[in-house]
Amino acid sequence: MAIERTFSIIKPDATARNLTGAINALIEQSGLRIIAQRRVRITRAQAETFYAVHRARPFFGELVDFMISGPVVVQVLEGENAIAKYRDIMGATDPAKAAAGTIRKVHANSIGENSVHGSDAADTAANEIASFLPETTSSAKASCGGVRGFGASQPALRACRLIGY
Ligand code: CMP
Q1: What is the pTM of this model?
Q2: d(CA 10, CA 102)
Q3: How many CB atoms lie within 10 A of CB 144?
Q4: Which of 49, 58, 109, 113 has a CA positioned 20 to 30 A from the CA of residue 139?
Q5: In angstroms, what is the span from residue 160 Cα to ligand 1's centroid?
Q6: For residue 111, which phi and psi values (nearest 5 degrees)?
Q7: Nearest to 54 by CA among 64, 43, 44
Q8: Residue 150 Cα, ligand 1 centroid: separation in angstroms?
Q9: Which residues participate in catalysis according to the annotation?
């Protein structure tokens, strides 16, 4: 089984109820490692792009409004089979249909306010990580390797140290 990375969002309904730590505990108990995370407010444009595949669905406007209604925590999770494993521990999109013990069964309010998002495939995981936590990608790592060369600017060196490269 391959070591993979997946992208996660702890959504506004969960941050509003102070559930970041409880959700992170479930993630870590599953064996997945949280290798990066940041609490942010996403913009309407970011939310519309992120959920563009759902643009024609009747709930699209409501979904975008909800995702910008409060802070979210964007995360990179790493582990064996991380994409499928995270979808397993999130549970079904509708918490009423989610299996016992899953994040959505335990914490989600409704199908719309369902506490977490996880990538559904390797290509979407890579795109979502590059959009929200680009400093974790191999291209960021490579450019920091270059920055360390003689004559690099202090701000560039500081930025690379801050992200652990
Ligand atoms: P997520 O995994 O982030 O991907 C798409 C999101 O659309 C999904 O979680 C839900 O939050 C939301 N969604 C899906 N179906 C509905 C629905 N019927 N009504 C409202 N929101 C929905």
Answers
A1: 0.89
A2: 14
A3: 19
A4: 49
A5: 36
A6: -60, -35
A7: 64
A8: 49
A9: 117
